Amino acid sequence: MELKPGAPGLGDGQELAEDQAKRAMTAAGALVLQMRRDAGYSIATLATMADLSPGLLSQIERGQGNPSLTTLIKLSQALKVPVGRFFGADAEAGALVRRDARRRLHVAEDNLVYEMLTPHMHGQLGMLRAQIAAGWDNESAPFKHPGEECVIVLEGTLHVWVNGTRYEVHEGDSLTYDSALPHWYRNPTDRDAVLIGAMTPPSF
Q1: Model pTM?
Q2: Which of 63, 100, 115, 198 lies at a 20 to 30 A Cα distance from 152?
Q3: Are 72 and 86 in contact (CB under 8 A)?
Q4: What residue ranges define each of the domains in the chain, with the CATH number in brackets?
Q5: What is the pLDDT of residues 128-166, one digit of tens each?
Q6: Cα–Cα distances in angstroms (integers) from residue 54 to residues 45, 46, 48, 57, 129, in the given order
């Protein structure tokens, strides 16, 4: 998992990128640790609530390991916080978000990249760009958050399940649904898919 405010600049070496990823995992682990302690949970209690092993949770809190998006979804639901908390701190106040300064959530284990298109998640609207890896799905840990969501597929094809109903969404198609209902995605193809998602309120 790599959490950072933007991609490294041209000319940055692999060593710098790896260092940034390591620091990002450490920050994410510290956030999980803080939220667990604030909620008054032991490692064993939170691990049970999130259906994770205590060992894996301990590794995450120490900034080790490489949690998948499924793991992050389970943790966010157990802690009753949006998955978007793992983007890290909000960008500085302002209206304009430069392409190379978007806050990113890169889940390396799943080869997924989420980018925040709005400057923060505290307004009336949230927007994300997501790159969904070939063959990926989150059936085992569906999203479920209050509000309404609309997604448009820019590249590829996605199967989207909303409360048990499957929609096949092709390039250029859009789908709107009640995001309080369990929903999950599958990329049934052999190439990455890209979507833009808008939600109100921002609750990813």
Answers
A1: 0.76
A2: 100
A3: yes
A4: 2-86 (1.10.260.40), 123-200 (2.60.120.10)
A5: 999 999 999 999 999 999 999 999 999 999 999 999 999
A6: 9, 8, 8, 5, 32
